[in-house]
Design brief:
The chain has a two-stranded antiparallel ribbon. It is mainly alpha-helical. It contains three helices and two strands, in the order H-H-H-E-E. Strand 1 and strand 2 form a beta hairpin. 47% of the residues lie in helices and 11% in strands. The N and C termini lie far apart (27 Å). The chain is globular, with a radius of gyration of 12 Å. The chain has one domain: Arc Repressor Mutant, subunit A (Orthogonal Bundle), CATH 1.10.10.10.
């Protein structure tokens, strides 16, 4: 996925992760890439990747396991 540099980056990253979850790339209970990996993949800062994951967490799409990372939530 190519980031549109004219638009805010974090919503684009969040939407791509959400799309991958919907497509089954990341299954429920599976760990999603961390901020370092996402930053490298999308060529954004780690804070941008962190903000994207924080939004998905607030929406209940992912959850955090302390010291282990972000994981896909079970569908409701």
């Amino acid at each position: 996925m190519e980031i549109n540099r004219a638009e805010p980056h974090w919503p684009q990253v969040a939407e791509e992760i959400r799309r991958r979850i919907s497509a089954g790339t990341y299954a429920p209970g599976e760990r999603v890439p961390g901020t370092v990996a996402l930053a490298a993949e999308f060529d954004v800062s780690q804070s941008t990747a962190s903000r994207a994951l924080a939004r998905l967490r607030a929406e209940g799409v992912v959850y955090v396991v302390s010291g282990r990372g972000y994981f896909v939530s079970e569908p409701t």
